[in-house]
Amino acid sequence: MGRGINMNDSIHSILKQYWGYDAFRPLQEDIIQSVLQGRDTLALMPTGGGKSICFQVPAMAKEGICIVISPLIALMKDQVENLRSRGIEAIAIFSGMNYREVDIALDNCIFGKIKFLYIAPERFYSDLVRERIKYMKVNLFAIDEAHCISQWGYDFRPSYLQLAELREAHPEVPILALTASATPRVIEDIQERLQFRQKNVFSKSFARPNLGYMALHEENKMNRMLRVVKKIGGSGVIYVRNRRETQEVARFLLNHGVPSDFYHAGLGLKDRESKQHAWTTNQIRVIVATNAFGMGIDKPDVRFVIHIDIPDSLEAYYQEAGRAGRDGKKAFPVLLYQQEDREKLWKNFQDSFPSVQFIQQAYHYLANHYQIAYGAGKNITVDFDVVEFAKKYKLQVVPTMSALKFLERDGWLTLSDAVFIPSRFKFEIDFQELYRFQVQTAKFDPLIKAILRTYGGVFDFYVPINEYEFAKKLSVSYETVVQMLEGLEKQQVGSYLKSTDKPQLTFLQPRVDYKNLFIDAEFIRERKDIKEEQIKAIYHFLDTKECRSNAILEYFGEIGNAHCGECDLCLKRMHVEGIEVKIEQEIRVLLLDKPQSLQELIDNITVGDDSQKLSVLRELVDDGKAVVTAEMYYWKAN
């Protein structure tokens, strides 16, 4: 889809034509109109609320290209494929792509028919990207997961701090910032950091009336989990902290007759896709996953989300729990915890703030690991496996990951999420030269013909290729195909970039002596204070005696009115109140029959425990309904 749709065309006809919907969801149209009026806009929309429509529709209604910033590379790739399947030209730039790939992609955004450019925020450290954006006819900047720009946010990402420069490149272009959850302080901070010309926030209530939040102190979490899964029925997600637990919990459920599977970022792309498909199509009931699972999945009929560990923040919990009940029907987010989990969470928090010396040492090891000489290494990008690295240098994983984040904050490096990037290939000579090469070098001829038959544009762009498919077509081994592709590269006929599914780490500065490495210790102290507040908010959610739903609403700056009537605390309260009503009725009947001593009365009441009976009796005496004289209780006649 090359041209922008005329402004006179209705946004409703765009919605219908490309997405097949007759009407917008609540808030979507208001946000779109705000953007079309050229206003900077912050949209707070719960998970599954249809955020992407809010920037895709207005971008289609205007001439030019929409630039979308997102830290979730897998989600970015899904959205690009989704747009292409609707006949809309879209492209993504993220870590792991080489300079020439990025160069070609950016040229297409300036001179070609691209309508949406998705960029990972760490790519903004590249002069190439920032310079080329100036020459694009941009109609909208969409910043997804906008809470990442705020140091008060639960998932602060240093790479987001560069994004204010978008304003410098195109001062008149509106910014649409999107997030599923943000506290009042974060809402202010997002608008300030993105240099909003005027404050402008659209927000749905954080209330989810159909969700019955449960937070249960439980010594035997596995058995309680099984009871919850069997009692509630239907489809569900179980979140655990690490990859090992995903397999253990899924095996436990399978052994107890619950069709289940496990999911984590360490699986291959095909495995992840097939497991996700089996769950979304209800071939399996339960997916046991790390928090890598769920982004961008809009499955409406999830009846429960169970957390076996305490999440790091209430924002993260709200988003993950919010994947339940998107169809508006009753659903249950259940958090199971022990005292040990609380202590583990606190230790994890402490480990996440290593000393400046530890961070400097980690940088030193990192440069040695990739054999980078002093004064060299600027803009080098490498595959990075944190577990392997930590093991080699005998470092703990949590402090190491945190050290990398602080190194990123101070501009030494960037680190992307793990993502599968397929192999790519591009011919570097023109068609006539390629024909001459085929004639002269017969052994490459079958592969070249197969590439030309399979892919268009391979002379102009890098195209994703599958070595296994070529091996099948040519009846040779995978290794042979790889050798042939490498041979074409050696002969300078083509460029071949191998697939990877590891995080990408880029060194942004030449290597320095680690003792001269500047680390902002004050910033680390500030982040630690903020994180401590977030941990305490989760503890408050666990410890509240009032209402779980209201505790969440208050955290996000909303006033919780009546109790929700659905969470474990409300249900327990209603149960207790029901018992108390019955106790009062029995006391009245017993005392109208004859005065009784305290012991007689307690023995004769048939419901509740002794403390409940005493509590109700005390209230009746305080209210003057019952009286006590010479240690005998009477019902006071009206």
From TrEMBL:
MF (Gene Ontology): 3'-5' DNA helicase activity; ATP binding; DNA binding; four-way junction helicase activity; hydrolase activity; metal ion binding
> What Pfam families does this protein map onto?
DEAD, Helicase_C, RecQ_Zn_bind
Q: Where is the Helicase C-terminal domain?
A: 221-370
Q: What class of enzyme is it?
A: isomerase
What the entry lists under InterPro entries is as follows: DEAD/DEAH_box_helicase_dom (IPR011545), DNA_helicase_ATP-dep_RecQ (IPR004589), Helicase_ATP-bd (IPR014001), Helicase_C-like (IPR001650), P-loop_NTPase (IPR027417), RecQ_Zn-bd (IPR032284), WH-like_DNA-bd_sf (IPR036388)
Q: Which domain of life is it from?
A: Bacteria
What does the UniProt keyword field contain? Answer: ATP-binding, DNA-binding, Helicase, Hydrolase, Isomerase, Metal-binding, Nucleotide-binding
SMART domains documented for this protein: DEXDc, HELICc
Q: Which PROSITE patterns is this protein grouped with? A: HELICASE_ATP_BIND_1 (PS51192), HELICASE_CTER (PS51194)
Q: Which residues form the Helicase ATP-binding domain?
A: 32-200
> What is this enzyme's catalytic activity, as reactions?
Couples ATP hydrolysis with the unwinding of duplex DNA by translocating in the 3'-5' direction
Q: Does the keyword Nucleotide-binding apply?
A: yes
A GO cellular component annotation in the UniProt record: cytoplasm
Q: Which NCBIfam families match?
A: recQ_fam
Q: What protein family is recorded?
A: Belongs to the helicase family. RecQ subfamily.
Q: What protein name does the entry list?
A: ATP-dependent DNA helicase RecQ
